[in-house]
Design a protein that fits this description.
This protein folds into three domains: about 300 residues, no CATH class; about 190 residues, Four Helix Bundle (Hemerythrin (Met), subunit A), CATH 1.20.120; about 130 residues, no CATH class. The radius of gyration is 29 Å and the shape is elongated. By secondary structure, it is mainly alpha-helical. The two termini are about 40 Å apart. Helix 3 crosses helix 5 and helix 15 packs antiparallel against helix 18.
């Protein structure tokens, strides 16, 4: 936990940027220079590209927020109830849009929301100054953003590109280990399986990191399109490996792993262990094609599973080769590829993301009620600093809205704000009266500012660093001359902490749900999409569906870990559900090449799958298994139909994912478990 040189560098940079913003604000005589200092701590990120991207969205969000305040306050100032409702609704609506966006752009919506509250509530006592207040606030915030961006970009910048390349390399290395385990038939312990699932969450983190790459100064900044293509293949690799493990296990039980297949699996494993070189991929693909056999009208279950295995091996080699080609292109940083991609046509377009409208609306209602509660206390007590409480209520209900249970984080923020109030009080009334120039002021502030920066470099202490850095500067309230008064300081500190506590209480009543509830919502959303995919007819985009399902998987993995091993959710095979989705999309495409009778049989199986996912979570029924087997038998009898092979293999995958313990079609029934 001892900070290294990178942590010290960031701490010195953020404190230097804060002091630079303070010095410029005092020089140009801005009314509240401490807003510029606090903005530096909100904006500054360890990576320079991330700082610049956040800076851009913060500037735009600030301008939208101050405009909203200028539009709302003057005409409604004589109707405080209506003004409170307007500001609360604006903040809640912006938060709702922010939670649905789930990209760095979401910060723009969130900031536009609570900036209007930050400016609007203090202005109710002097509405005639709202325009001047809005302009000065925009100037102070923009100054802080510019100082953070300049220091991050000019003083030993930490580019995003090398960090992203390192994360991609580590991900592919771990995926390579999993590939070796799958192809060699090694079973997985629960701890190893959990680590494999972490790949989905890490892919989502890599995607979030890549969004800052366009604002980077590294060579990799031109490789943004390649990163998006690579992420698609990284995500598709997970269901392919899961399917391969299932097919190998099934064939082992059927004694269907022929010597030829074993040699092929061993060679693919050796190719993967060697780093998936593209020069050998073509020869390996030719061997896979040679091992593929036509499926006769009386193909055995073992032959169908073997064909499915060959199909997945083909995908594994193509995706693995693409990953290495893209990794090489990203590493070179020129945005070009030296070799064509095998799956180029399947990974175009924008990747869909999971959106939880229900939780976004619930968070927006929590923010709305939190602001209303703070204003009610303000009016009922005639609190001189009640506007500060309303401001903090708006900010805190927005900042932690992405968490399942934001209350612990909000209460921690309140605790450290209280500690900051005590420490700042000692500094403000014991040391600051002795300060008479900017140099001595900088020397006095530097240790505390550096400490806040160090705390921000660790995920566990990041909220502490933010609480001290942002609220500490607000409490210090540095002006061009010393004007502090103890009673006003105590009242302002109580308002800060009080607003945070009110936000925590309202959030506890309206918004807190817990990790297990969040996991159940994600599982339910996936089941709805699986049912919809089974009900719909026509072609489907397999890559888009994989993006959506794996995006949910990335959100689900940490929640399953937080829910604990005793939760019934821990028994869900999340990758099996993903495989169901992939096969459903393949079947929807294959049905266009079948005869009407075969289409009717396949549609009956798809409708049974839809009914399974529309009902309560549980084992697949005998009726569903019989529908799948009937469709298999009917489509096997098809001759010279373009969709026959894809339909058969899709049904094999569906049967293995939903009923992994079921005996082969036509065999005596055995007990089986749900996917």
């Amino acid at each position: 936990m001892l900070p290294g040189w990178r942590q010290w560098l960031f701490a010195v940079k953020v404190s230097g940027a804060a002091l630079l913003a303070l010095g410029i604000a005092l020089w140009v005589d801005l009314p509240r220079p401490y807003w510029a200092m606090a903005t530096v701590y909100i904006t500054m990120q360890p990576l320079s590209g991330a700082t610049r991207s956040k800076a851009l969205y913060r500037v735009v969000g600030t301008l939208i927020g101050v405009t909203a305040a200028v539009v709302l306050v003057p005409p409604l100032v004589n109707a405080p109830e209506v003004l409170t409702l307007a500001l609360a609704l604006w903040t809640a609506a912006c938060l709702y849009l922010s939670l649905l966006d789930r990209s760095p752009r979401s910060y723009l919506f969130m900031l536009a929301g609570y900036t209007a509250a930050l400016i609007g509530f203090p202005a109710v006592t002097s509405p005639e100054t709202i325009f001047d207040t809005a302009v000065s606030r925009a100037e102070e915030i923009t100054l802080g953003i510019l100082c953070a961006s300049l220091v991050a970009s000019l003083v030993l910048p930490e580019p995003v590109g090398p960090v992203l390349a390192s994360r991609v390399g580590a991900w592919l290395t771990e995926a390579g280990r999993w590939t070796g385990d799958v192809l060699s038939g090694v079973g997985e312990e629960p701890a190893v399986r959990a680590r494999r699932l972490r790949l989905a969450a890490e892919a989502a983190e890599i995607d979030a990191l890549s969004t800052h790459l366009a604002y980077d100064t590294s060579a990799q900044s031109r490789a943004v399109p390649l990163v998006q293509l690579l992420r698609g293949r990284m995500l598709m690799l997970l269901p392919v490996l899961s399917s391969l493990a299932d097919r190998i296990a099934a064939l082992s039980g059927l004694s269907g792993l022929t010597p030829e297949l074993r040699r092929l699996l061993a060679d693919v494993e050796a190719w993967s262990a060697a780093g998936a070189p593209s020069l050998e991929a073509d020869a390996l693909m030719a061997r896979i094609e040679a091992a593929d056999r036509p499926l006769s009208s009386r193909a055995s279950w073992s032959a169908l599973v073997q064909a499915s295995l060959i199909d997945r091996l083909r995908e594994l080699v193509a995706i693995g080769r693409d990953c290495r080609v893209l990794q090489d292109g990203i590493g070179r940083g020129d945005g070009s590829l030296r070799e064509p991609l095998a799956f180029a046509s399947e990974f175009g377009g924008r990747a869909p993301r999971h959106r939880d409208h229900g939780m976004a609306l619930r968070s927006a209602i929590g923010a709305f009620l939190g602001i209303i509660a703070c204003v009610v206390v303000w009016i009922a007590t005639a609190w001189p600093d009640g506007a500060t409480a309303a401001m903090m209520g708006a900010v805190l209900t927005c900042l932690f809205a992405t968490q399942d249970d934001p209350v612990p984080a909000i209460l921690s923020f309140a605790t450290w704000t209280g500690i900051a109030a005590g420490a700042i009080g000692v500094l403000l009334f014991g040391v600051m009266p002795l300060v008479h120039d900017f140099v001595s002021l900088a020397l006095v502030l530097a240790p505390a500012l550096i400490l806040c920066g160090l705390l921000m470099t660790y995920p566990k202490t990041l909220p502490v660093g933010l609480a001290l850095g942002v609220n500490g500067n607000a409490l210090l309230a540095i002006q061009d001359r010393y004007t502090s008064e103890f009673g006003a300081y105590v009242n302002s500190s109580l308002a800060l902490v009080g607003g945070i506590w009110i936000a925590a209480m309202v959030t506890r009543l309206v918004r807190s749900v817990g990790a297990e509830h969040g996991a159940r919502r994600l599982v339910a959303a996936s089941r709805v999409d699986l049912a919809r995919a089974a009900r719909r007819r026509g072609r489907g985009d397999r890559a888009a569906f994989a993006h959506l399902m794996l995006d949910r998987l990335g959100l689900l993995v940490p929640r399953l870990a937080a829910a604990g091993p005793d939760s019934d959710l821990s028994r869900i095979d999340t990758l099996a559900a993903l495989r169901v989705g992939m096969n459903l999309v393949s079947l929807r495409r294959a049905r266009h090449g079948l005869s009407p009778d075969a289409v009717a049989s396949l549609d009956a199986a798809l409708d049974a799958v839809a009914s399974h996912y529309e009902g309560p979570r549980g084992p697949a029924s005998e009726a569903l298994l019989h529908r799948i087997d009937a469709a298999l038998a009917r489509i096997e009898a098809e001759t010279e139909r373009s969709g026959r092979r894809d339909a058969l293999l899709g049904l094999v995958g569906l049967r293995r994912a939903l009923c992994p313990a079921a005996p082969p079609p036509g065999a005596a029934p055995l007990a089986r478990e749900a996917a």
